[in-house]
Write a structure and sequence with these properties.
The structure holds 2 protein chains of 2 kinds.
Chain A (H helix, E strand, L loop, with lengths): L5 H16 L2 H17 L6 H20 L3 H38 L17 H16 L9 H9 L1 H4 L7 H4 L11 H34 L6 H33 L16 H7 L2 H15 L7 H19 L2 H24 L1 H24 L3 H30 L4 H25 L2 H12 L12 H24 L1 H7 L1 H18 L13
Helix pairs in contact in A: 1-2, 2-6, 3-4, 3-5, 3-6, 4-5, 9-10, 9-19, 9-20, 9-21, 10-17, 10-18, 12-15, 13-14, 13-15, 14-15, 15-16, 16-17, 17-18, 20-21
Chain B lengths: L4 H26 L4 H7 L6 E4 L9 H8 L3 E3 L7 H14 L5 E5 L8 H6 L8 H10 L1 H9 L1 H4 L3 H8 L16 H6 L16 H17 L3 E6 L4 H4 L5 H11 L20 H9 L7 E2 L18 H13 L5
Parallel strand pairs in B: 1-2, 1-3, 3-4, 4-5
Helix pairs in contact in B: 3-15, 4-11, 6-7, 13-14
Classes of the chains: A mainly alpha, B alpha/beta.
């Protein structure tokens, strides 16, 4: 079931009265059944996967609670990881590795045929797998106590508002909220509904209105002028932001109506002044997950291990071969890779400080590469992660000198911040080209198309009405996000009935007038 | 209970604003200079009426009026399909005087764009026929329009009506020259099917063409079918013109029936008896093929659309061939 569809509104209209009239176990059971109906509506066959992950992690959690022997505890954790990541890997990456292998073999003149087995990706598998894994890891680390109530645990894993596309909620934050019945509250209803309506505006009005223009650009980048493609990628940056953060807003708002608090998943990311800040504002639940369960265990900014080096080098090695297309080019790429690796190793050996710095960069890179791969089974996602890893590393090198340059030029502070924001936005958009294009050929044609500056005239834009509508909607979005810093609308909605009524009504008018009601799926469903 | 009031207030205010806004926008649309607004106002009388999709915008009215001295009106719109074209033609004849001649670019049989058809919801208050057409493509859009009058105006058609609120759309045409990237990539383009290429719409499209011709004949209006120019190297990518000619001739015949024919475009079994039957029909109309009539690349905005320069060359050729007579 998707939020922007009629079945969802019917479902929620039936679900809510039962939810608030039931208590205790009955309510939990209702949530669980409701969540499986919600998920099964998309494809009932995949319910069994959620159920199996739930069973495994419940069992492992119980065993971990009663086990003091460290090696045995480690084995239990490993078993849970293998099952969870095994499912994720199989469903998400089987087709990818098969196709990549065949393509690579064919590129090098060897005959290889893909098997006829095509695996369909279960919706939201990355989200609930990470949520489930965080529980087991936290129990292993003894950060949280095991959840003995199976219904409560199963509801935590499958809770429908965030099951399909997040936010990824931690067991330590979410499970305690199931301890007591959440009472109906008008304040929660008001603020939750407000956030949902805002989420619908982002998704139905903004994201879905931008989508046709973006799709057209990426289908055939050769067919459009430089300015058209430039607008296309700017639109995509807002499309993906509004699509994903719109889903998060609806999920968070719905959960709040039901009495639960989810953490924020987005905080106006395109206003970030550096890339570290960007990742504290974009898909926060995933980046904080990766930080807590990957970056810090790898050593964070305090060192690391050569295991992470291997993790970077191996996929880059494979990518180089795959990307090269011929033995000669592959050799050149691999030589460059080898030289960079040797130079880095030499530099790291020169002092302890460099060694720590070197590992920090690698930990950053590993985290971003995995973040990229989390999105999907494609080299383009991997490359997107690589670019963001590079941004973080280059920022560590150039951040301070750049700051000094800005100070020396005596730009006003506001202007300096504006330049920082534009730089981050520019490079974020560059990475989005790969993310959206999926195929390197298309991404390359797209970037070449923009960089050619051919036909950089307003007249060369095709479908100017789409552009006009898109600019208008992005303008509305930015206006609200910028002025929110000053007025704090979410608080105003609570305290001022006149503002609440006016803002709800205006948003509903805008949705009716600009919205796209084709029940378009959310982009992040594919992840 | 007091807490409930704001919900009622939101609902009531939404509908009040929706109705007021809807009424205001409807007034704007009805007084626009956009082609369909003029048509439903009955201010679109002409000698030559054009019908087509975006390629039909190549019937550049200012130049045609200059070279023929005749009044023209164009019903063409981006991605306008044959079935919607037929409905608009009927509505045109209902609200305006009959033209002498109708010229149809039959590549409008190419595809059906549901979003485009439902976008015409904005004109459904003026035509039950159009309402039925929108409803047949999307009940949600049709009934959504009954629920929210703002939603009725949620389409590109409305935006165009506003764009042309106080200026004529007669000179609406692609205003660019095909870019170098496109020129270089033309060889990589897949084969192009000038007729309907979606198996599910083939029967409907030919049936609608038959009805369109029938309507013209019943009203004693001459009707001519054309295929407008394509970018020359792209024209070579069209694979089915010969077969399409036969099918169009058969579909425009009075003895046309809707028996399924073999689909000629997807390499299915071709029923040779039917092809024979098609060629024997004498009363059907053949289309004028201008698909590769222009050779100057600078006359095109892209592979499928002429710009003003190309349109003028095209019109000159049509004039020589007596199409406007």
């Amino acid at each position: 079931m998707i939020f922007n569809s009629i079945p969802f509104f019917v479902f929620i209209a039936i679900f809510l009265p039962f939810y608030f009239t039931m208590k205790g176990k009955a309510r939990l059971l209702l949530c669980l059944i409701g969540s499986y109906i919600f998920y099964g509506w998309l494809d009932y066959r995949f319910c069994s996967l959620v159920a199996f992950s739930t069973l495994i992690d419940y069992y492992v959690g119980m065993k971990l609670e009663n086990e003091d022997d460290q090696p045995k505890r480690k084995r239990l954790l490993l078993a849970s990881m293998i099952v969870n990541l095994g499912f994720l890997g199989f469903f998400k990456y089987f087709n990818f590795f098969q196709e990549s292998f065949v393509s690579m073999m064919n590129d090098f003149g060897m005959q290889a045929h893909p098997s006829t087995l095509q695996i369909f990706l279960p919706v939201g598998i990355s989200f609930y797998t990470f949520q489930s894994m965080s529980y087991t890891i936290d129990v292993y680390w003894k950060k949280i106590k095991v959840e003995r109530d199976f219904i409560r645990f199963a509801t935590f894993i499958s809770f429908f508002p965030q099951l399909v596309a997040g936010p990824i909620v931690r067991a330590k934050d979410f499970l305690p909220q199931f301890q007591n019945d959440r009472e109906f509250s008008w304040d929660r209803l008001i603020s939750g509904t407000g956030q949902m309506v805002w989420g619908f505006f982002k998704k139905v009005a903004v994201a879905d209105s931008l989508a046709p223009f973006v799709d057209q650009c990426f289908q055939n980048p050769e067919g459009f002028s430089s300015i058209h493609l430039l607008i296309g990628i700017i639109f995509y940056s807002f499309q993906i932001y509004c699509d994903f953060s719109g889903y998060s807003d609806i999920a968070i708002g719905l959960a709040r109506v039901l009495g639960f608090d989810f953490p924020d998943n987005f905080r106006t990311p395109y206003f970030s002044k550096n890339f570290s800040e960007f990742w504290q504002r974009w898909h926060i639940s995933l980046s904080s997950w990766l930080k807590d369960y990957l970056y810090i265990p790898l050593g964070g900014s305090r060192g690391g291990s050569f295991g992470s080096v291997f993790f970077i080098i191996l996929p880059l090695f494979l990518l180089s071969i795959f990307w090269a297309g011929s033995w000669q080019t592959a050799l050149i790429y691999l030589s460059i890779l080898l030289l960079v690796s040797l130079a880095t190793a030499y530099w790291m050996r020169s002092s302890d400080a460099n060694r720590v710095k070197g590992f920090t960069y690698m930990n950053n890179m590993v985290t971003m590469l995995l973040g990229g791969l989390w999105h999907g089974a494609n080299w383009a996602f991997y490359f997107w992660g690589f670019l963001h890893g590079m941004y973080l590393i280059v920022q560590r090198f150039l951040g301070k000198p750049f700051g000094k340059l800005m100070t020396a030029l005596r730009f006003p502070k506001m202007m300096q911040q504006g330049i920082d924001i534009l730089i981050v936005y520019f490079f974020t958009c560059l990475a989005w080209v790969f993310f959206r294009a999926v195929e390197f050929d298309v991404a390359s044609a797209y970037i070449q198309g923009i960089a050619s500056f051919e036909n950089f005239t307003f007249g060369s834009i095709v479908n100017k009405f789409w552009v006009l509508k898109g600019v208008l909607l992005i303008g509305m979005l930015l206006f609200v996000e910028i002025t929110d810093f000053k007025f704090n609308y979410s608080k105003l909605i609570q305290t001022s009935p006149a503002f609440r009524i006016a803002s709800f009504v205006i948003l509903l008018w805008i949705i009716a007038f600009f919205g796209s009601f084709g029940a378009n799926a959310f982009i992040y469903f594919q992840f | 209970m007091k807490k409930l009031y704001w919900i009622f207030a939101v609902i009531i205010l939404f509908f009040i604003g929706d109705r007021l806004g809807g009424y205001f926008l409807k007034q704007m649309v009805s007084s626009s200079q956009f082609r369909y607004s003029k048509m439903y106002r009955g201010e679109a009388d002409c000698d030559i009426l054009f019908l087509g999709n975006s390629r039909g915008l190549g019937f550049y009215q200012p130049y045609i009026e200059e070279v023929t001295g005749k009044k023209t009106f164009n019903l063409s719109y981006n991605a306008l399909p044959m079935n919607l074209g037929r409905v608009l033609l009927e509505d045109y004849l209902e609200h305006n005087n009959k033209p002498e001649l109708i010229i149809v670019d039959i590549t409008m049989m190419n595809r059906v764009d549901t979003t485009l058809v439902t976008g015409f919801n904005v004109y459904t208050p003026y035509s039950d026929r159009l309402g039925e057409m929108v409803k047949s493509h999307s009940k949600n859009v049709f009934y959504g329009g009954k629920l929210s009058h703002l939603f009725v105006h949620n389409s590109e058609i409305f935006q165009r009506a506003m764009f042309y609120y106080s200026k004529t759309d007669k000179d609406w045409i692609v205003d660019r020259v095909i870019n170098e990237n496109m020129v270089n990539a033309v060889e990589e383009q897949r084969p192009f099917y000038a007729g309907p290429f979606d198996w599910s719409t083939v029967e409907m499209m030919f049936d609608e063409l038959n009805q369109t011709v029938k309507i013209a004949k019943e009203n004693n209006i001459k009707i001519k079918l054309v295929v407008s120019p394509f970018f020359p190297p792209f024209a070579k990518k069209i694979v089915n013109l010969e077969h399409l000619q036969k099918r169009v001739k058969m579909a425009t015949s009075e003895s046309f029936n809707k028996n399924p024919f073999a689909h000629p475009y997807v390499n299915r079994t071709v029923d040779t008896n039917n092809i024979e039957a098609m060629t024997k029909l004498k009363d059907g109309i053949e289309f004028y093929d201008y698909s590769d009539a222009l050779q100057d690349p600078s006359g095109f905005g892209d592979y499928q659309h002429v710009n003003i320069k190309g349109a003028k060359q095209y019109i000159d050729k049509m004039k020589v061939d007596g199409i406007f007579d």
